[in-house]
Every structure is written in structure tokens, then in C-alpha cells.
Write a structure and sequence with these properties.
By secondary structure, this protein is α/β, with parallel strands linked by helices. Bound molecules: pyridoxal-5'-phosphate.
């Protein structure tokens, strides 16, 4: 599922390239536990900015970066616990924070999970081929960034309606930026562009398709999953009841598979936009939760392990974005009990992070959770990525007043109900799984046998995590040859 069959001649070229550029690669074990990273790398990080295009930043592909713009080394996993004054529910809602990855989003990890195995095995030739990163935004930012660190050319593909911040940054980092028609949910157009590129440029490119690359699944299973485990240890949490993740490529939700091995009763909730309810209703449509919901079921989404679908109204996300980031909104939250110090954490939630918070509130209400119950969720990126969206809504909706704050809180926090959700039974899950047929077999040419294996073969999903150790051995060997050459 992850091709690590060695192509020795290309592998040697990649080693030579890394030697020339002084590039070493982190292992999965190091991303999980950065304490194991050698001292000289930590020293170098003390002089390096979080987003600097410097290969040492490959060692910042971890949830445990010190939350600093420059010079940070490692600390605890970055997370926030959402106070009850904001969630309105007794259940504890804890969110990992993606802002402190290079590029400001954890997607840089998913791209590394896809690129590293190809690089160390020689299935991607960094000296001659371009890495293509099809995405709705943060994945191609991460991919272009990692490509640049590794000194290889990249092509970023994303829909034209994604935020201005993403395009501006990409134009500086990616070799080529291709904007495809439409918005967030127009992934078919991205796939079409990939086929076109394949036809035109063939062997000159390698497409790292996050929607079907198991390196993406593996990275989240191993790294995001164990980051949550380590937060549990830090906070003394013995049992986790829910894991909520919106699905874009279906990578982040894989951490839930890991958590189920620790907490077998945990419920995994897949969140999507109500305006594009593909999992809930085989639906379609445009929406404003950037990064998620792409009118198909990603190949790497382990539907068999998904317990609940939660559709979130994008209007609630936008309203809460303003509540959390406008002066009057913050004053209102303080009046209803939010600790003044917590205000600094509010911008750590980007739009999809807010969507995950809403989905977590809905899950807590659905299962009537109380103060002993714990839900984990994810803030993929932060408001750093949405200044232009805030500006847009200020212009469109006008100033955000105390009255607006009260109304938004009543509607989008207290007003969350258990509507637009579905707890999945065996055949509901099978129905979602079967939707993969149309995208992946009919449209993208995968073998129906593989589709059936995902459902019927008991070892299919269990075999993937075993790849981490094998990849680590190859990374270690690769690094040894880079150094010793
Ligand atoms: C902002 C944002 N949120 C959520 C997601 C969804 O994460 P995943 O692709 O791992 O399902 C993405 C994916 O690109 C994203 O950019």
C-alpha cells in the first residue's frame, strides 16, 4: 500500500542530493518523540524560524514544537482545552493545535508521510522529477514546502477560490501553482488536472495524491494518534470517549483508528459541511469550511471504523470565527465566564477547527456526555490563514457588535442540536464505503478487488501501521549513507 520497493539507482541519486544539501530526514519515532532527535539538530533549531525554508525544519514535523515563531525546540504536545463557557457542554473538549508546524498547519506532516517513503526507496527521483501536490490548500502548501526543503521542484494544485493567503505564500515557494475551477468541494477538477499533467509530462512528475496515499493515513495514525495519547498521559486522562475529525483527505481521522486500539469504546465522528453532506446524504454543494468535504469519500478513509457523521453548518463556523476574533465577541465571552487568559487561544482555531469544535459539541449532546467524558479534536490550522476572510466578512456584514455576539452565541453555541447527524450501523457504514466505487473505481481506475479488500479483508487497515518501523529502518539507512558518503 506504501511502495518501498527499492530502486537502488534513484535512491543513490536522492542520497547524493541530500548529501550536497546537508539534508537529514526524521524518522516516525523521532516525530513521535522529538527528545530522541540529536543535540546538534536541536542547537540548529534554536537559530531557525518556524517557517524558514531550511532543511533542519524537517525536524519540526511534530506536534511538540515549542510555540515560538523562531528558535523554538521541543516541549509538550500543543493543545487547548475548550472551556465550558465556550462549548456550553460539560464534556471536556480538547483540541490539538496545528499552528506550530512549519507552514502553520499539520498538513506538512501528511505530505512528509507521502514523500519520505518515495524518496528513501527511490520511487521518486528528487533530482529529475517534480513532486505534484493536489489539494484544497494546506496539503499543497506543506508539499511545496517540503519539496523546497529537500531541494526538489514542485507543482501545487488547488481550487481558485481558496484563501488569498494560501496563493500568496505558494507563489513564493512552489515551482508552479495551478488554480483549478471552483471552491473547496471541487476535487474532481483537481483529479482531472492530475490526469492532464500525467498525460503531458508522464515520467517527469510524481503525483502525491493525499486522497489515496496511505502515507497520509500512516502519518496521522502514528503521529497524531500518539500525540493525543501523550496529552492523555499529561492530563491523567484514563479514557477517551470521542474523537472528532472533519474529513478532507481522510488523513486526520486515521488518528481515531489508533485511539480505538487504546480506548475500544471510543466513538469516531466524521465531520463535514452541511452545505456539502456527502457522507450524510450522498450530497454535494459548495461551502466555506476550507480544507474539508470534497464531494467524495477519500480512498484512505477507514469507513468501517467511523461511528458517526456530523454535518456542521458553515454559517455557524463563520459566525463563530467572528465571535472568537472580534473585540466585542471576546468581551461577550468573558462576560459569560471565559477566563481572560483564554482569549489568546481563540485564534488558534481556523475555520475547520471551529467546525470540529461545533461537531464535538454536537457529539457531546448526542451521547449526553458529562464532565467525566472526553472528546479530542483537531485545529488543523489557525486564523493566521484567514485574515483575508475576516476582512471580507467585516466588509460584507459590517462591524460586529455586542448584540451580534449575543445572537451568535445563542444560535451557534447554545443552539447546537443533534440534528444533521447519523450514528452509523453496519449497513450505513457499508453505504458510505460503497460510495468510493464511483470515485475510485469508475473515475480513477482503481481495482474493485482493492475496494472489496478495504471492507472484507480483516488485515487491510491493520497492516498499514506496521509500515512505520520498516520505513524508519530505511530512513535510518538513508541518513547513514548521506553522512558517510
Ligand atoms: C484547514 C484544514 N482543515 C481540515 C483538513 C482536513 O484534513 P484531512 O485532509 O487530514 O482530512 C484540511 C486538509 O487539507 C485542512 O487544510
Amino acid at each position: 500500500m506504501i511502495n518501498i520497493t527499492l530502486n537502488e539507482s534513484v535512491r543513490k541519486k536522492n542520497i547524493q542530493r541530500c548529501r550536497e544539501k546537508g539534508i537529514l530526514l526524521p524518522t516516525f519515532a523521532q516525530m513521535k518523540n522529538p527528545e530522541a532527535i540529536p543535540g546538534e539538530i536541536k542547537e540548529k533549531l534554536k537559530e531557525t524560524g518556524l517557517w524558514d525554508v531550511d532543511p533542519v525544519n524537517l525536524f519540526r514535523i511534530t506536534w511538540q514544537n515549542e510555540p515560538k515563531e523562531k528558535g523554538g525546540v521541543y516541549g509538550d504536545v500543543n493543545f487547548i482545552e475548550i472551556p465550558k463557557s465556550i462549548s456550553g457542554v460539560d464534556a471536556r473538549i480538547i483540541a490539538l493545535v496545528g499552528k506550530w508546524f512549519p507552514t502553520g498547519a499539520h498538513k506538512v506532516g501528511a505530505t512528509y508521510g507521502c514523500l519520505a517513503p518515495a524518496l528513501i526507496s527511490g520511487n521518486f527521483n528528487s533530482t529529475e522529477q517534480k513532486a505534484v501536490w493536489p489539494s484544497t490548500g494546506n496539503y499543497c502548501r506543506g508539499g511545496a514546502y517540503n519539496s523546497e526543503l529537500l531541494g526538489c521542484d514542485s507543482i501545487a494544485i488547488l481550487p481558485e477560490e481558496m484563501s488569498q493567503e494560501r496563493f500568496e505564500w505558494l507563489s513564493r515557494i512552489a515551482g508552479e501553482v495551478i488554480a483549478t475551477p471552483g471552491c473547496e468541494s471541487n476535487v474532481k477538477e483537481i483529479f482531472d488536472k492530475c490526469h492532464e499533467l500525467n498525460g503531458e509530462r508522464g515520467d517527469d512528475i510524481v503525483i502525491f495524491n493525499q486522497f489515496d496515499e496511505f502515507g497520509n493515513y500512516l502519518w496521522h495514525y502514528e503521529i497524531t494518534g500518539s500525540a493525543i495519547e501523550s496529552v492523555c498521559k499529561k492530563l491523567g486522562i484514563k479514557s477517551v470517549n470521542g474523537y472528532v475529525s472533519s474529513t478532507g483527505s481522510g488523513g486526520t481521522i486515521a488518528a481515531g483508528d489508533y485511539l480505538k486500539t487504546l480506548f475500544p469504546n471510543l466513538k469516531i465522528g466524521a465531520a463535514e459541511a452541511l452545505q456539502c453532506p456527502t457522507l450524510l446524504r450522498n450530497g454535494f454543494g459548495g461551502h466555506r469550511i476550507e480544507g474539508i468535504g470534497d464531494k467524495h469519500v477519500p480512498w484512505i478513509h477507514n469507513v468501517k471504523n467511523t461511528d458517526m457523521i456530523i454535518a456542521v453548518d458553515d454559517e455557524d463556523c463563520i459566525s463563530l470565527m467572528r465571535l472568537f476574533n472580534e473585540k466585542e465577541g471576546i468581551s461577550f465571552l468573558e462576560r459569560v465566564g471565559m477566563d481572560r487568559d483564554f482569549a489568546a487561544n481563540l485564534p488558534l482555531m481556523g475555520i475547520s477547527g471551529i467546525g470540529n469544535l461545533i461537531a464535538s459539541i454536537k457529539m457531546a449532546k448526542y451521547y449526553e456526555m458529562d464532565g467525566d467524558d472526553v472528546i479530542f479534536t483537531i485545529c488543523t490550522d489557525s486564523m493566521e490563514m484567514y485574515d483575508s476572510r475576516m476582512k471580507e466578512y467585516r466588509e460584507k456584514q459590517g462591524a460586529f457588535t455586542a448584540e451580534d455576539a449575543r445572537a451568535v452565541y445563542a444560535r451557534s453555541v447554545e443552539g447546537q442540536k443533534i440534528d444533521s447527524m447519523k450514528e452509523l450501523n453496519y449497513y450505513d457504514r457499508l453505504a458510505v464505503h460503497n460510495l468510493k466505487y464511483y470515485t475510485w473505481v469508475e473515475q480513477q481506475g482503481k481495482d474493485v478487488k482493492d475496494l472489496n479488500s478495504q471492507w472484507y479483508d480483516k488485515s487491510y487497515w491493520k497492516d498499514i501501521p506496521e509500515m512505520a518501523d520498516k520505513i524508519d529502518k530505511l530512513i535510518e539507512e538513508f541518513n547513514r549513507e548521506v553522512i558517510s558518503g
